[in-house]
């Protein structure tokens, strides 16, 4: 196992670990990169619900030259017709959110309080770095403070946007169809749902969400250094629900959780439903290795696919989102609740304090991927597309001020003022053992369906498909599952194996395991069915299989985990890996 970054320190609030013990982040991190495209068209304007917008740059200018709005009336940019980032929702137009249960629609009201005043948010200068601790390693003092902060959040007036349930509703509104996409000046388009999952918005949205949540908690206990704990489910020592969430008298407790997932149950990042703790741990480490290192052909494979104004939601989730992230939600959610509340459904997930601890680790995965995984192990790490960088969201900050934030302002956790306790990353080199495949594939050839006759393929049982490689002997290839129709009202989960040798679908710690698609029930459109796609890098898998270069086809095995149903795959193909793009200058 790798022992990189192991520092046996205990993070407490009173004694933050000192900087010098940690590896220095790359030097570019604290600078604002000049290559990030300028923000467009956010100058002073009045939008359809007459909420005045204030451009952040004008605020900066104004502050520098003696007046907050000193430069505000200088320019009104015409809207750039090619720029189509997802825009922050208009709160006044927030409608009912929908939870689907066996195709019965259940309406939920989770709209936030509205206000006329929106401020474009500027990340304050960082004077003291917050240290997010591993939830299994915190001190009793830390737990006491955290509990007190959540308790106070629950006691805030119901209509205070910082109230615990208002905070939980943020997730519901952004994820269950309460908001529609803004169409330029014309206001929201009722047919286009705003959805922050299953695309490149996933990491940025949740980062901002936790950022303000953390600041609100800090304010409530008068401790600006307060930092959320992360549930370290990627490390064997963190693979149970952190103890602080289990005390029934604590504000951190939530009774809507799966009884079978209480410690010592080991988290099942693959939802394979096995009980052997050792196999679960090895599966989990393999999954993390696959999501973080092995399975992504390009930056979108990790981050999620592009999602712009006008697009249908669910363009395609990134590896962590559609894998470990979703599985933890489902694993904790209570199977005895109608739709697996709380964590097992987007509309209710934020009602369990454990949600924010889970997502702190998801956020940590993004940081690790950006700054700690050697760049020769993964593809390019940056998205420079202005539609990504200029996408925006609304949140209430710790002072109950409604603020607009952009993706480009959340790309660097250090600039936002927090970092993570350094913990061993045992998955970093958790490469499965190589396998010999030749004979097995020949056997499989004879009993497998031919691709052109099986599509569209309904995934209600284990299926095997032969897929043509691009060019004989060419190793840099990507497996694409496209035109996937997914039923968003259900939990969906299936695993993908290539040239599987032993057909044991409960062991993921083998070369044949390629990746996962998993999704929680949510609402993404007027229909419950949406189209999506995923791409999985084959390069490293090929390296771990003997003789595969000589084959013209590979055998793809798809294993549904959710009692089947809900997924129809339009096509499976193998393409050449995309050339490295956006390579940052060394
Ligand atoms: Cu917004 Cu883990 O979900």
From TrEMBL:
Cofactor: Cu(2+)
Keywords: Copper, Disulfide bond, Metal-binding, Oxidoreductase, Thioether bond
InterPro entries: Di-copper_centre_dom_sf (IPR008922), Polyphenol_oxidase (IPR016213), Polyphenol_oxidase_C (IPR022740), Polyphenol_oxidase_cen (IPR022739), Tyrosinase/Hemocyanin (IPR050316), Tyrosinase_Cu-bd (IPR002227)
Spans annotated as Disordered: 14-52
A Pfam family this chain is assigned to: PPO1_KFDV
Family annotation (PROSITE patterns): TYROSINASE_1 (PS00497), TYROSINASE_2 (PS00498)
Domain Tyrosinase copper-binding as annotated: residue spans: 197-214, 352-363
Keyword field contains Phosphoprotein: no
Family: Belongs to the tyrosinase family.
PANTHER family in alphabetical order: CATECHOL OXIDASE (PTHR11474:SF123), TYROSINASE FAMILY MEMBER (PTHR11474)
Protein name: Tyrosinase copper-binding domain-containing protein
Organism per entry: Penstemon davidsonii
Classification of source organism: Eukaryota, Viridiplantae, Streptophyta, Embryophyta, Tracheophyta
